[in-house]
Amino acid sequence: MFVVVISENYARSSWCLDELVEILSSKRKRNQVVPVFYYVNPSDLRHHKGSFGVALEKHKKRHSANRIEKWKLALAEIADLSGYHLEDAEDFVFSIKMNGSEADIVRNIVENVLPQASRKVLHLDTCLFGIDLAVEEIYQQLSMESNDVRALGICGLGGVGKTTAAKAFYNKYSHKFDVSCFLENVKQNSQGGSPLFHLLQQLLTELLRAKDSKVRDVESALRKLREILSSKKALVVLDDLDQSSYSEFLVRICKLFSDGSRMIITARDLNLPNQLKVELSKVNTYMVRHLNEINSLELFSYHAFKKSKPPGKYLALSESFVTYAGGLPLALKMLGSSLCGRTNMSFWKAKFQKLEKMPMNDIQKILQMSYDELEDDTEKAIFLDIVFFFVGKNIDEAVDVFKSCDLFPEAGIPILIERCLLTIDRNNRFQMHNLIQDMGRNIIFEESKHGPCRRLYLNQEEACQALPNLGEMDKIEGLIIDLTMSTNKYCNAEIFERLPNLRLLKLVDVHGIKGNFKTSFRELRCISWHGCPWMHLPSAIHLQKLVFLDMPFSRFETLWKIAELPSLHHLNLDGCIHLKELPESIGHLTKLDHLNVNDCVTLKRLPKPITQLATLSFLDMSGCRNLKLLPQQLGDMKGLQRLDASCTAIEQLPDSIAHLKKLVHLDLSGCEKLRKLPEQFGNMEAYGSGLEQLPDSFSDLLNLVSLHLFNCSQLKRLPEQLGKMQCLSSWGRCISYIN
């Protein structure tokens, strides 16, 4: 957090102005900035008047126009931030007017700012309109001054700003609670397996600020939640939770809350909040309103011109676009972004004429303009593949698949982000606004109606009946078979024989494939099959081009054909409780980058050849509770960056681990049998491990920034020279008997 004190002579210093530019750049990366206007009028900063205007004029003699323009933008930006003001200003409505002695003022500012400095801050766009009013209305709806338990449903059309309003409220008021969490995109991130259990895991992980909640089922998760929530005032925000099936669960959560706690959910409609009202007496709803004409024009102009008002000659056309968008922030942002940098008036007029031919209320067609204007077919293919297959998936997994298909993702994905068609969340996963994803699905549907079908979704009996009726089946590149609602849970291998160019395959609730594989899957790059019933890979299957094998919770006992997957980059065997061993031939997977054997509880060892995987950067074997030893030559895995051995039975680490120069994260939490660490060591997290001491050489880690030793109850002593670690800024509380 930055507290910036701006006085009358602030702009005289080029150093101060450069620092301000850097601080505001940091703000965009989620750091908070709080201005203190020390007897200056923010209007003078915004419009470069008074002493600020004079100083900027003098700087023109010594500094470049580009540098001065950055200073002007920074001064204008900080003038619009909420902060503290030591003098009245008619047009400054966001700041707190400070009275009393300067010492009292400093004390008040510190007391207000300090609780916010240590809490999680959610990212918000730099340009928001009407948000302060929305936050205060949410505050009133939640009756924040009362000491009872309340819930609120924030509702409205997709793209209207429900998530933004919830985030802004969270950022402003979460410090008033003992514990708080904000779960984004709940509906998307809870798909597959047990959505309710997955949601509970996310909730516990956020509340505990831990990587993994380590609970086994719904009831144990609820018991853990009761321990946390029964004695603490909590704020829980669940974003994008439309399913009515969650209502009973939400009621149970609210009944665990202690006095003063609050729950917020965001949803497209009123169905879920209304269901909660049946069980809970103090549930309100807040409908997010569309922006008014003034704020709409400002938002559109910010994205089209990077300023609050459009130039005169563009004003009339800008107002036409704003009227068409109907106050929907997402549409305003996307329309403005599509016109940014376009100076030809003919282009603007043609763009609006194109809009006029579309129905006014058809938001999907507004969104599709950004897709239609993609200049490259590979960008469109990447977008549709993400819509079809990769929303919520890790970007690294998808990028490797796209590379293998010659789609050039390093060039295409940034374009999709720039066009507001795609975002990357803080966990490095693809996310997409619901309206945009719906638009993409509609494109896929129309594609199958009017031309060769490239991506196909089949459910129920369609999996056995629809394919023979399709023409040009050799054009199909993506296939999802979902038998969730079908009584017949099996599909026939003959289906795949007719799909020679299949690249992406996902099987949902499919209990088996009948028949033999002959020439199938020769072009397949990615297969996702949760709960695969195979005990081993079929001998006749051909997967030479496979990049991503996603088969968690499957019945594999061994993977003896794994060496026949020479292109494999990502292997996910999470929760394969029958997997007894990995084959020695795994050392032949020279391109393997990610290996996940999390919760493979019967796995007792890793094969020695695994140390030959020089490209492996991520290895997760957490929860392998029968895994006692790591290969002695672990240090040969030169590319390893993240190693998770939490909740395993390992008793010691091989000395060669010191050779992992690229290792940035090592998790040993829950390793109760681990008694000591090698003398030469790197970064680590050791939550609840059995460590008794740290080696003296640990103090030589002069660049270590963060050390977490939570609940290491056996830890007796720390190295004498720990004070040499001058970069250590985060010291986790250690519950132990340290002398």
Automatic annotation (TrEMBL):
InterPro entries: Apaf_helical, Disease_R_plants, Leu-rich_rpt, LRR_dom_sf, NB-ARC, P-loop_NTPase, TIR_dom, Toll_tir_struct_dom_sf. GO terms for molecular function: ADP binding. Pfam families: LRR_1, NB-ARC, TIR, WHD_ROQ1. GO terms for biological process: defense response; signal transduction. The keyword Repeat applies. Keywords: Leucine-rich repeat, Repeat. Residues 1-104 form the TIR domain. This is TIR domain-containing protein. It comes from Daucus carota subsp. sativus (Carrot).
